[in-house]
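Step 1: inspect the first sequence and its tokens.
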Amino acid sequence: MKLYYKPGACSLASHIVLREIGEDFELESVDTNTQKTETGADFTQINPKGYVPVLRLDGGQVLTEGVAVLQYIADQHPEAGLAPKPGTLERARLQEHLNFVSSELHKAFGPFFSSSASDEEKQAAKGNVRRKMDHFESIFSDGRKYLLGGEFSVSDAYFFVVASWAEPTGIGLDKWPNVAAFSARVAGREKVQDAMRAEGLLN
């Protein structure tokens, strides 16, 4: 398999999960501004949508959209315990978290990564991000370690990555101590550190 990624982008979640399952895979970085990969390939020929992550399977098929990629990887390696069994309430809870991160929190950060966004739009985005983060702070208020309870899942990988954008955007995590503790917990995982180091995010 090959993962097309952009350092620190949402594709980091898929990268983390690939390392968590111990699967052999290749990495190829993408400049989403020029739409060129590190080998000079035209990324639009790989994913016409123009963004990461993209997982190229061993048979040559291409899978896009982070939520789909994360669940596919987990389902191919159920022994890793990164996603509950399909058809269960626990799996529906996983999808609930994944979808909220994707459609609400991830989207809320959008203006910070848009060259055309005005200062007013970025300021409004801060308020929007804060409201979404309040939701996660409430989830962790019962003392759970991870979104589904005591075990790390693909939803944690995705939330960890998106929550990490709070620091470079000037929002920070000080207002949400439970989320900050969660982020520190995930950041301490060996495979998470391996993925971040490979993307140049850690020394």
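Step 2: inspect the second sequence and its tokens, then contrast the two.
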Amino acid sequence: MTGRIVVINPNSTEAVTRGIDAAMAPLRLPGGAAIECITLAEGPPGIESQVQADGVIEPICRTVRARDNDTDAFVIACFSDPGLHAARDVTAKPVLGIAECGVLTALTLGQRFGVIAILERSLPRHQRYIGAMGLQTRYAGSLPVDLSVVELADEGRSLARMIEIGGQLKERERADVVVMGCAGMARYRDRLQQTLGIPVVEPTQAAVAMAIGRIRLGWEKPA
């Protein structure tokens, strides 16, 4: 059985889902797991606050329940990991969050990781999450591009800002790995990595890669 992974974009912006879907190309292999990217129609255009993150928990759980019979693993494609633990309660299938997976992947690629955030108000959420993971000593910090999720579709402006902020994380904060702090940034990973000259983690790719491993190796969900 090759398996199926459903990647849930918890915001309602189809352009973000298309970018995520395109970023899955390296992970779509002959005979491998099918990777299906879907949009949460009930979600806001972008998840940019804790209130918005909390507001999509129930719709995410409904989606997981509805797809449980034909899916082998779920990925929640928002850097706040909204509904991650609630979704794990409603299915026996693996549920992975892109923030958790992106950070864990970064730890294998360097000593200090930095995060490119979307907005200044995203920074406390990053700090809380990474603090809860106990990784403060490996965390170089987060810096914002100051663009909304919808504005990330502006390719010229977004890539330029990510290069600028990624460079600050590398040179000023001494990060040797950069994590993209929003699924809406997915389309820019390769160009950003080439420009910065250090590993850049696109967290949805990281989460789907882990999901593939979970399916192939038959690992059960933790009790």
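Step 3: confirm your contrast with the notes below.
The chain has two domains: 4-97+204-217, 100-203. The two ends are 24 Å apart (CA to CA).
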